[in-house]
Amino acid sequence: MAEKFLAEQLEDVEGSAEATVLEMKEERGLGKTLDIILHRGTMNKGDEIAVATPTGPLVTKIKGMFSPRGMSEMRDAGDRWDSVDTVSAAAGLKLSAPDIESILAGTTLRVIPDDKSRQQIIDQITEECEISIELDEEGIAIKADTLGGLEALAFEIRGMKDVSGNPRNINIRSATIGPINRKDIRSAAISADPYERVLLTFSSGILAEAQSELSSDDCDVLHIGSDIIYHILEEYDEWIELTKKRLEEEGRENVIHPGRILIMEDHVFRRSGPAVVGVRVLAGRIHVGQRLLTVDGEKAGRVKSIRDGDHVLSEAKQGDELAVAIQGITIGRGVDEEDVLLVDVPESHIRKLRKLNISSIEEEILAEIIAIHRKDDHFWGR
């Protein structure tokens, strides 16, 4: 139906021959051929033609032309093709010519009727070779099988929004036409930003070498491809949210988070060397190795170990009641039963915490810690 629709809509029999390139195919018995819709003029075997490729205009000559046999449409012709010497608009046909492997689908094929019009036609083809997608220095890579498909994909990506309706502001580093190759994957893999190690493809194939690389265990490039743009966007959007959560969790493990604990009454098991006390985590979390602070801003040692019965833990969270060994304090000297202690968050971690999605209670503790330190240093944590 595609060629029938285009033939009806684009017919313009006057002037030099022009056709729309649908796709390049390998046909049994014919070799590499172009499926085209001739919508203007008359095309002859042996005509010189100009077509668009990713590297610029290609000028070549028609070696053969083939029309569907009988009343068949191009898609239903199978191997039933008749060789023809002349075709007039409007018609769907195949043609063979040298060096047509990289021709851009969706662009215009033009016949060069004489030397006088040669340069004008080549200039027109040159304009079609230029992909009108604004690229960024860093970002994701996108591919499609046609120029129109590539531009449509880029447009939709630029318009993506998060669940709150805010723009995603996705940067696009590379936009090319054709199947995925190894260079595409390796180019995406070197990005320092995990959000940009992404390759989105619309109706693009994958070369065998690229498929092997994408399937390898050590490949950390995300590839999402489909023949439907909205399926690509939906899957990509889900991946962004999952990646955001994963990176936040990883960040939480590397950043010291705010925490508040209470030394419980009648739960002093050893007063020093290290002090071993029963604590309740009032808010946030505590982790082995973290330094503690009194609410008055005095140093209160370092968490040496955390135990819950016979279980040795590395971390305790809000609501937990367990035994904690604290190195560097003596119970009864500056720190006592029923005292509240805070995790002493390093100043260098303040900015990191502000970028993470910490809870409201953690924000409250963080504000308290900052206020304590700013009694001595007005610019602490800024």
Q: Give me the CATH fold name of the largest domain.
A: Elongation Factor Tu (Ef-tu), domain 3
Give the overall shape. rod-shaped
Mean pLDDT, as a whole number? 86
Cα-to-Cα separation, first versus last residue: 65 Å
The CATH architecture designation of the largest domain is Beta Barrel
Instruction: Indicate the low-confidence ranges by residue numbers.
Output: 1-12
Give the helix/strand class. Answer: alpha+beta
Q: What is the rounded Rg? A: 34 Å
CATH superfamily of the largest domain: Translation factors
Strand element count = 24
Q: In percent, how much strand structure appears in the residues?
A: 35-45%
Task: Give the class-level CATH name of the largest domain.
Answer: Mainly Beta
Total of helices: 8
Helix content: 25-40%
Q: Could you explain how this protein is built, in words?
A:
The model is unreliable at 1-12 (pLDDT under 50). This protein folds into 3 domains: 2-129, Beta Barrel (Elongation Factor Tu (Ef-tu), domain 3), CATH 2.40.30; 140-254, Translation initiation factor IF- 2, domain 3 (Rossmann fold), CATH 3.40.50; 259-373, Elongation Factor Tu (Ef-tu), domain 3 (Beta Barrel), CATH 2.40.30.10. It contains 8 helices and 24 strands. Helix content is 26%, strand content 36%. By secondary structure, it is α+β, with helices and mostly antiparallel strands.
